[in-house]
User: What shape does this take?
Amino acid sequence: MGLSSAAEIDGAQLCIFDLRRGQQEGQELDKILFFHPADCPILLQLSVIGLCEGIITFTRIFSPEDDCEVIESDKHCHVFYQAEPDIWMVLVVQKIKDNESTLRFGALQGILKESHSLFAMFHGPIRTLLDRQPSAEFARGHLHTFITDYLSDFSVGKKLQLPTYRDSLTERGTVQMLTVSREVALEVQSLTTVLGSCLRNVICQSVVLFEDLLVSTTLPMDDTLNLYTYAILRLTPSALSSNGNSWSYLRKGGYVNADTTLSSANGAASAERYNSRSRDTSPGGQNQMHHNFRPLQREKLSKGKDGFVAADFVTTEIRGAVPLNPILWFHQAEERMYLCVYQHKNLTILLVIPASSLINGEEGIAHVKRHLLENASQNIVTVEQKLSRGWGGENAYHVGGYRYILSDPNRKVSRASPPGKVITLSKDSLLALNRLRGEIDLEKSRAKRSDPTHDKDYEVCIRAKNNAWIIAKISRGKELYMAIEKGGETLLYASTAVEKFSNRYCEGAFSTD
Amino acid sequence: MDPAPDPPAADEALAALSLRGADLPADFASAGGGHEIAEEEDEDDEGYVTAASRGGSSTAASRRREEFEGLEEEEEDAYGDAGPPSPSSSGYAGERGSSVASSAGAGGGIEEAEPDPAPPLAPGAEDWARGKKHADEDDGSASWRKRKKHFFILSNSGKPIYSRYGDEHRLAGFSATLQAIVSFVENSGDHIKFVRAGKHQIVFLVKGPIYLVCISCTEETFEGLRGQLELMYGQMLLILTKSVNRCFEKNPKFDMAPLLGGTDAVFLCLIRAFSWNPATFLHAYTCLPLAQSTRQAASAVLQDIADSGVLFALLMCDHKVISLVGAQKATLHPDDILLLANFILSSESFRTSESFSPICLPRYNPMAFLYAYVHFFDENTYLTLLTPRSDAFFDLKDSRARIQDVLLKSNVLLEVQRSLHENVLRVEDVPIDPTSQSTSAPAQSSQGLNSQPLSSDEAIGGPAGLWHFIYKSVYLDQYVSSEVALPIRNPKQQKRLYKAYQKVYASMHDKATGPHKTQFRRTEDYVMLSWITQDFELYAAFSPLADKHTYFADPSDQDMQQSMPVDQGFRGQSVHIRRKHHCLVIFCLAIPSLLGRCMRFVSVTFTNVVCFIHDDHCSRQVQANNWFSICISSMGSGAISHLCGL
Assistant: This one.
């Protein structure tokens, strides 16, 4: 009984495979680009991928246009994401016995989407890497270090702790914005203008964050989201200050610490394995093609005395071959750009400079930095002061009595109750909310398939068995989910509560009239 | 004796599946894109037109069934050509019956049949070929792949047993693939539940050596589809009993398909019921509305028979129970009633002559056969007498004659026919509460969500935009539902309504978080309200265009609070109930202290004065809780049982 899919491995697995590779019998191993945990026996890896590939093929018989999304069994949940044509990411989550609906497919797939987007931002599409080097050494090496570093955020001990029902009031793949007054907005505007002119003749782009919230961006939406996500994961003051996790999951820092080293060790071991054959074929000059480029490695990031966040991505042996400032690929802007991070107190500025405009890489960056310090310092201090003055603290967006998440998938923006308030909800409420969100996810994807141009309105109010109101409302493409535990018992109460919330905090987006 | 199927075989099959995949995509491309789906949609409409044009001649119930038959794009043509294949007392069932009779032991029938795995199913074998839908299709046909809902039954060695579309033999390869998937996961100590890809859902159910699979793009819930597979399995057991498993123990490669030869129509009829019969997901049965005295007359004579060695005596009209009597302590599960009625109604031969057929009630005892004596008194009304004795035919025949006498003398059969035509629950008959006319306008005059005025068609329905409701009494395992109102009489819409009900039902009864207490759900098609208590479950559908203020009103509105003292208003309406001569009548009352326009459903027999089943409960809800816009009342726990003569 050697080939069991996932039963023999504790916890979650994540694999990335390319269906265009390993077509010949006996070469199946060549399909695998990444597998977590790296020490999983090869036979087991092949078994997992065999099942996934079989199911992908099978579902195409009936559904040639839509990807296979999920395999649900009693003990496991396989979540699929076709990141690039024929390149699949599959997350295998082990279920805990007694809570069947604790997982939400959309939330789990969000992890796959996010990790791939980030990877592509730093390394370019996987397919490009594979095309450039058919032996796939670099693709595997980068995926290993990158995804392993990414997963370290979810590691608790040896296991991955993935989003469960407790995260039903979070939404991966969205940006949380800071609401600013008109006066501050003008200041921010002038800061952006100064930042834009850091380089003569070429306009630089910028993303400005205050704490973990987005203040302004000049990049397109998707690129903003990627950069924002990266900033939240690794660059903001809270991310830099703690080796623990700044992500909205409340996790114990100690565990994360221990595991970071552990997963790094794993990564190194596996990189060794993958790189053993052709270590020296790396095309020089491209930072993305370097083995040791690890933008998600926590310990490599620190804030320098000059205020710039130094990205010491270069490891020991070949310092100097990799620029200190990584070049990123911005998918939506279709441009390669240098990333330069400046931080002043709680304000984080991500400046991106078109790579094509800097003939002499690092020197050019140094010039930009100088320019920023000389011309923008005053603006930065002013903006930071004003934002700090108006900042309501971590509970700034708490609304008494409500536990909510408000999101606009079209603009990729969300706002939610602070995590510290969400944990006060009972398990029953969170479970019911998670279940409802799963159901709405399905309705949304159905609606999208039947008519992508038309936003369907939807509304559900459930009085759960613990007397909490669990509410979901989609109106003109915007979504609101909430749980109200200490409310009246009439449906009218729930309806009025939504109405009030909508009028006060959503500019009436969810109001009936 | 063949060795047990070894895991490597399964793995090989999966590898084969992967290999097949290499050449599949090109094939898919040629298999066509969206246009064929569009064609199916057209077929849907076409089916409707045909059905509508021939509707009306029959009773309401059978008309509805016909419409749905029309709606089922695939079924229609086959039924048009040659009647559905049927297990008959002379053919399939009789064959099996006699063999079982000789074996005497419970469940021995399968073994008896084994030496002759392909019994001379005179009409059956032909029926199979004739009755099979689109028998020329297989997994290579584009049309087959585009079918909206497939059902498969196969054995754990991959042998096909049943497929809704296409010839089972030609689907052997496909069946092996399904088996490989299931076994692959089973071998790892896990059990596969479902796979989802876009709008397609593949749901698996493993029952010992039998695998059941549904592949559907009908947007039904996993729970719903899984329940349907359970019923498919139940239907199979009803025909064969669970002792068929022993055949697989003896020979893992046992070919079970011939044992089900000729029963395609039974499964097709059941599959059709999934889209119109609420009993398939409610796990409750419904009764034909009748005057209490009529039902008592029927029940009395059935009771006499039950005392003389019959296990269950059932008098039914189509899918509705007229009266049901069980021997001491024996209870009939609603699912068994559903499957039994489906078995009988889907077989033409039961209608033409009295029959004595072995059947198994899977919820009563899945291992053993009972013997069913079935006789149709008229087109819709039939008597089923169930006994454990295989030699009881002549006794039961005599009993039937006695019953028939009484039913004729007491005009029960006439009343049944009248009830079929007249005693239907229409939301249109729900009186618009006179006291609330001034306070809240009914939906008809309201502006919709999209600010479009309702068309005249849409405007027809019950008060407050009520289109349909289902009420289930938990204690009695019974439900009542209204006729579908005009706005949703289009079979396609009706099908959509049932899917919406199924969704709400699944949501309310979620395993981990349910049952919820209430739910309000607004989509572009409906507003659905559901309410579950220990005693009952209520599901109601309203027009999505109905103004929300028809459900919601300010409870602090003093005028409204005073306008309708609950009990007074209720008694006032009871006069109306008697006059209507409806067994069950729905009421819509504005109970202002609830949420503005409040619905009150009342179930009563017309011979009785109104009383409250949930009297305390209801009043408390109305006066103290004031929380929901629907309230139920009926006659006390005896009421519905009176209706069905229990």
User: Anything to note?
Assistant: The radius of gyration of chain B is 26 Å. The CA atoms of residues 227 and 281 of chain B lie 7 Å apart. The longest helix of chain B spans residues 7-31.
